[in-house]
Write a structure and sequence with these properties.
9 helices, single chain, alpha/beta, Aminopeptidase
Length: 301
């Protein structure tokens, strides 16, 4: 009986997650596009090769074995055909929506957050917004203590993939709902968050959501950054109904752990045939603003 209930809960969670993903994919969806230019396809292939060269001999050996089993495709037997079918549904391919665009505080972004708020409330979770527009769903714990948080970001790059960010939010919502239905109120407080921003696709900064959560950013930073139309982050935030002191401070001091489920940002799991992995290292980024002093002239001078 217990196994049957757990299996039913898992099926329900999967259905819930896919429903949310499909709903989010429609909010900010772009019109049909065309195939990537050949140069961009070549660049993507070159990057994949570079990642494999950096992966180390053990991963390369597993990949070679997988390619031998699949006739050189690098995929598990029977999976290559499915992958070819999946490729027809990728953003930017001919006759297919060219991705999803939800930029921080724009109309599509706000629609997505409001939709998620309604979904969280419909599942019986406590909802709240912080001052920056990050949205939380809460399942209170019986024993109190520090909070375990999961989730991801709701914003996208321009014409981004439908699962980037959205997957972590949808999976978190589905997990909390399934656990609550199966076991009742948890001992520890569990929360899921739809972070307001991660991508840096509208303003020249990244991680506005988690940066405020951790104290990296604060209210003074909102007036320092402008988008391509000249609007400051502060103006956009207030225009969307956020930034006021009546909303809770985004800084959190009560967290014990944060878990983010995310699409794979490489090809390691795809090539090894594993379904899930734990990231142990990720590329770091550092950006510079440079001023080059000199005069325009011919390259040969």
């Amino acid at each position: 009986m217990a196994r049957h209930r757990e299996a039913a809960a898992a099926d329900g969670a999967a259905a819930c997650m896919m429903d949310i993903l499909e709903e989010l994919a429609r909010i900010g969806a772009e019109e049909a596009g065309t195939e990537l230019p050949g140069t961009e396809r070549m660049a993507a292939g070159t990057k994949a090769q570079a990642r494999m060269m950096a992966a180390g001999p053990e991963t390369q050996a597993r990949t070679a074995a997988a390619e031998a089993d699949s006739g050189g495709s690098g995929e598990r037997p029977g999976k290559a055909e499915a992958r070819r079918g999946d490729a027809k549904e990728q953003p930017g391919m001919a006759g297919v929506p060219a991705g999803v665009t939800r930029l921080l505080y724009d109309e599509a972004w706000l629609d997505a957050q409001r939709h998620l708020e309604a979904r969280l409330a419909g599942l019986g979770l406590e909802t709240r917004w912080d001052r920056t527009g990050s949205l939380y769903g809460r399942l209170p714990g019986r024993d109190g203590g520090r909070t375990i948080l999961t989730g991801s970001h709701v914003d996208t790059v321009r014409r981004g993939g439908r699962y980037d960010g959205a997957y972590g939010i949808a999976a978190g919502i589905a997990a909390l709902d399934a656990l609550n239905r199966l076991y009742g109120p948890p001992r520890r407080t569990l929360e899921v968050v739809s972070l307001c921003e991660e991508e840096g696709s509208r303003f020249p900064l990244s991680y506005w959501g988690s940066g405020n959560l951790t104290g990296r950013y604060g209210p003074a930073d909102a007036g320092r950054y402008r988008d391509a139309d000249g609007a400051t982050l502060e103006e956009a935030m207030h225009g969307a109904g956020f930034g006021g002191e009546s909303l809770p401070d985004p800084r959190r001091h009560d967290l014990d752990a944060f878990v983010e489920l995310h699409i794979e940002q490489g090809v390691v799991l795809e090539r090894t045939g594993d379904d899930v992995g734990i990231v142990e290292a990720i590329v770091g980024q550092r950006r510079y603003a440079m001023t080059l002093a000199g005069e325009a002239n011919h390259a040969g001078t």
